[in-house]
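For practice. Any example?
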Amino acid sequence: MARKFPRLGSTGTYQREAVAVRRVGVGARCACGEDRAEALIAGSNPTTCAACQRAEKGHTTIDQHHFAGKANNPATVPVPVNDHRAVLSVAQSAWPKSTLTNPEGSPLLAGAHVCVVAKTPSST
């Protein structure tokens, strides 16, 4: 079962970030320099990011990101795991639930990601 994260918005953004920081600890940082709480592995000692953990285990450090949301389009793009966890998945959590899950299979909702992606801070 997928974890449910707080929706973004002024209070949702703060809540999500606070939960992530509480999970890994204030000021936590991986040896590689990664300090985004969403990219760090809770309970790791020493503090480790997802990319370093995977590399240590001989696994890929690239994730396949469903840029339109899995329910809208099966297409994916390869992205570094830390960016996937700390930027892209966080940005998608700002989407209205109906857009992300698209229970009716609406082609309009399926294409709505184009507008949302154009507004994310990382795309400027």
